[in-house]
Specification:
kinase, 5 strands, 144 residues, Anti-sigma F factor, ATP binding, binds magnesium ion, protein serine/threonine kinase activity, binds adenosine-5'-diphosphate, sporulation
Amino acid sequence: MNNRMTFTFQSISENVTIARMLASALGAQLNFPLNELEELKVAVSEAVSNAIIHGYQNAPAEFVTMEIETTSEKVMILVSDSGCGIADIDQAMQASYSTDPERMGLGFVFMKSFMDELNVESEVGKGTKVKLVKYLASHRSSSH
Ligand SMILES: Nc1ncnc2c1ncn2[C@@H]1O[C@H](COP(=O)(O)OP(=O)(O)O)[C@@H](O)[C@H]1O
Ligand SMILES: [Mg+2]
């Protein structure tokens, strides 16, 4: 069944839980196995946390949007913020790179390893869009 939805929520950490529950519920409808639902939840949490923490520096009056599209073979989630943006995406995606010394710099590493596709678009001062795609094993080809 094809399904599309858009979910826009305030930039507060409590909403990370809601975002991951939504991703998990949709993934469960597609019959992703439990371990892959966990992977999906982690990837979505990382993307949404980044929007809140880095994009908006925790400013609660800002909004994060999650656009979700499911088909019988995959789930696609686009997490966007209109926050500060990323100056150097390649650098930001490197393992252990973080602009915050308190953080581990593994968010993008998890997103990349747990999803079949990860695409990041960002513009300084405009915001960031992170596209995450995960295929059901039966539809996962070696190219994704
Ligand atoms: N939505 C975003 N807006 C602005 N900067 C971001 C965003 N997402 C990631 N970044 C930048 O990319 C870096 C790496 O992100 P990540 O791999 O999740 O590590 P961490 O969150 O632990 O710093 C962040 O430290 C931040 O500088
Ligand atoms: Mg992160």
